[in-house]
Amino acid sequence: MQKRLVLDQTQINITISRFCYQLIENHDNFENTVLLGLQPRGSLVLDRIIERIKEISSVAVPFGYLDATFHRDDFRRRELPLRANETRIDFLIENKNVVLVDDVLYKGRSVRAAMDAMIAFGRPKKVELMVLIDRKYTRDFPIKPDYFGRQVNTLESQYVSVEWKSQGFEEDAIWITEKAPKK
Question: Which residues form the Phosphoribosyltransferase domain (predicted)?
Fold first, then answer.
């Protein structure tokens, strides 16, 4: 299988730091802003962002993890049922600025589902999207990120793989690979 490196560990660290500085600049001490990591993979990115913001500033950023499994439009269209992840949000988002964090923006369906799932916690004032990788030209919905690490042009036959050292990989890296052919 052919793999093409998109971001290596150093580049991912630089991107996470850039995200943090952008958030600090755009959201005054996070007084009216919360960060939500989309489960499962966005929560891994969010954890790194929260950790880095703590290193940069002394501000405690309200954050949580949002699962949108049951809000997806393809929930009942799969051969095997999707497994839900935990939603952990211990605050209301009513009239707050919400930054949704995910690893890869592909079709936009997860983000659309997350917007539906968020309503259970109140109506946000504003929603922004932060992703490590923006797969351009593949949207099913008119959604675009406010913050992104890298934009890539990909084919339907390709997959963006985000590997984290904390999950047993040799180092943090983001790759474009060919999808396995369907049997």
Answer: 8-165
Answer yes or no: is pLDDT of 180 > 90: no
CB 95 within 8 A of CB 123: yes
Report the first-to-last Cα separation within the chain, whole angstroms.
16
- Contacts with 93 (C-beta within 8 Å, 6 or more apart), sequence order: 34, 36, 118, 121, 122, 123, 124
Contact 87, 66 (CB under 8 A): yes
Using pLDDT thresholds of 50, 70 and 90, give the confidence band for residue 146: very high
pLDDT bucket at 71, cuts 50 / 70 / 90: confident
**Domains located in the chain, CATH noted:** 3-72+84-178 (3.40.50.2020)
Closest C-alpha among 134, 99, 100 to residue 24: 99
Contact 111, 142 (CB under 8 A): no
pLDDT-derived band of residue 77, with 50, 70 and 90 as boundaries?
low
Integer Cα distance of 107 and 112 in angstroms: 10
